[in-house]
Amino acid sequence: MRILSVSNRGALKKLMQDINVDPYGVKIMLPKAQSYLLKINSLSNISANILKQEMLSLGGDAALSADALTGRVKKTGCLVMGNLSQFTRLRYKLNKQPFGLSKLAQDLNLTLKNYQKASFQLKAGRYRLNLGNRSYIMGIVNVTPDSFSGDGLYKLTNLRTCELTNYIVDYAEGMVRDGADIIDVGGESSRPGAKPVSLKDEISRVIPVIKSLAKKINIPISVDTCKPEVARASLDNGASLVNDISGLRDIKMAKIVSRYKAGVVIMHMLGCPRSMQKTPKYNSLVDDIIAYLESAVRKAEELGVSRESIIIDPGIGFGKTLEHNLEILKRLEEFKSLGKPILIGASRKSFIGKILHAEPDNRLFGTVASCVTACANGANIVRVHDVKAVKEALKVADSIKR
């Protein structure tokens, strides 16, 4: 006798088939074997108590604040416990209830549907990426003189402009040969304390590279920028995806992404690069980041960005302490509730350096460990400097997981 550690629907189905369960029985019992703990941040006492009673009637439960039961507070957080079968029946019960519980039933249904989504077709310009069968890799090409990781290719000032562009393009082509699925070109450092780069300088750095690279590779090119003008120029010259660390705070960026039918990475950042690491604080880390991303995604879709073109990024290292970064990676599966592909950029980040007491160029093993953990916990894409090493590690990890 043993307790099984299985939550994947496919693995559960295979276990039942292995002991020759009737196909109809498999269909009925699969939802009973999938258990979830669902958090509702704020619910009125009346709604919460009805929810608890309905879940108890189905064999599940809901944990509420003790003060909600005595009426000392008007609202409470709620942890709802049950299997998929119970949640499905709960939905029908709540649909008949007043006090906003029918809306809660719709939200519950959407959250579970999002969380269970195992694959995505990402639309990015002329490209379609089928995310879900394996982990995808975004190779980092920093066309800057001051990247935190030490790989800023623009520091090679002894080269003439055309030679520098050719060198950078060759570097990116090497990443493609090593297995990169996307190339991300950036012309402005986002390291903590970084000073802004002028529009003219950023365009002069990234456009020659993107224009030349687009003629040589057949995978999506992403531009890492928060300036709408840079995004537009990049999309005009061969890019098909925008990696916006500011999370589409500028509505002009969303409109450009929509107009070009480009893909977009919406990232969470607390503050701006110059100030983001000055004592970052959250009320509730994951709750706050998910709320921010949910709002940004909704705004993007309202402005015309295709829902199939959006990737979310919780922003490792952008206004986060060491403990924050570790908690995000540990709880990454919770971000699946938003129903979007997840990108993680942990490569050579300072939290790895703090753990290993290592400089950026000695953080490869820590980067690999972070990427494998991220993909095991729900990430679809990892953004990295060292493509070959991460590619090989994830190929093995994907084989084990899938």
Automatic annotation (TrEMBL):
Pathway: Cofactor biosynthesis; tetrahydrofolate biosynthesis; 7,8-dihydrofolate from 2-amino-4-hydroxy-6-hydroxymethyl-7,8-dihydropteridine diphosphate and 4-aminobenzoate: step 1/2. InterPro entries: DHP_synth-like, DHP_synth_dom, Dihydropteroate_synth-like_sf, Pterin-binding_dom. It comes from the Bacteria. The keyword Magnesium applies. Keywords: Folate biosynthesis, Magnesium, Metal-binding, Transferase. CDD domains: DHPS. GO terms for molecular function: dihydropteroate synthase activity; metal ion binding. It is an enzyme of class 2 (transferase). GO terms for biological process: folic acid biosynthetic process; tetrahydrofolate biosynthetic process. It catalyses: (7,8-dihydropterin-6-yl)methyl diphosphate + 4-aminobenzoate = 7,8-dihydropteroate + diphosphate. One of its GO terms (cellular component) is cytosol. Its cofactor is Mg(2+). Its EC number is 2.5.1.15. The keyword Transmembrane helix does not apply. Residues 135-395 form the Pterin-binding domain. Belongs to the DHPS family. NCBIfam families: DHPS. PANTHER family: FOLATE SYNTHESIS PROTEINS, FOLIC ACID SYNTHESIS PROTEIN FOL1. This is Dihydropteroate synthase.
